[in-house]
């Protein structure tokens, strides 16, 4: 099994989302992720019922990978607990206890999550009843591109809006000048570099989880992907190309260095369904039970005012990229950059609606 390089482990230290509860925090700009969790709830419920149809262990061990911070970190876990507890009542058996592991990178704002636990526990108690088993929640810092749990210890793994993030920006992107992701003007070598990085990373992710999940255990993953075969299609790339244009504007005014722009590439990849299926089959540790797909607007508020819509999208992208951008370009450029980005987004949204393509995947450990 290929393990992350030293460079990748260093790079992962700067990838966490913006912490805290400020205007630019992930906690205050993650409505899109909340909507995705709600959208896949029926899919998640079916997977849970299938996973525990033959019996529920006395202690169910759950993990949420890439949980980030804010209330979203606990919403999927609440749904999983609710479903399993309901199953136990219908089976006329004692509710299990729950051991919940919330995982994200070491720089994640875990304190934000921990501050929400008293309200979470109180709400959980009110929504269920006194037959609900004890729930123990633990923060687990670490990259999911490394081992983070003991062998065959987990019953169910969930991850939402995380696994499309790569372990590092691919090597060999020297010809991607002026772009920060795959774009229409990117040469084939750039597309291949991103594709190869995704294949390595997703295969590694599956292999590591196969060691940690019990036999016949389940995993449900929601990721941003693409509906078209061409990785350079606008559906996948426009959001990042508009940010690249904002950086290019700043370069023209001497506000950033050309070398810094040419050496920056966002560590993300939006795969097609075919690519996901191919990696799962080749890696071989899991059966792919089901894939569903759906679209969502860039702006989860669906604001009718294009300028407010653009600002909403800019705020969201800032919340997920600011630590990475700060590390590369310096903190002084951030406010200026995202002001320009909102302007570029507004012009784009006046011409067409920005859409994400999501996939939710259910896997069973062989």
From TrEMBL:
Organism listed in the record: Vitis vinifera (Grape)
Keyword annotations of the record: Magnesium, Metal-binding, Methyltransferase, Transferase
Protein name: Salicylate carboxymethyltransferase
PANTHER family reported for this sequence: S-ADENOSYL-L-METHIONINE:CARBOXYL METHYLTRANSFERASE FAMILY PROTEIN
Pfam entry (one): Methyltransf_7
Keyword Methyltransferase: yes
Signal peptide positions on this chain: none
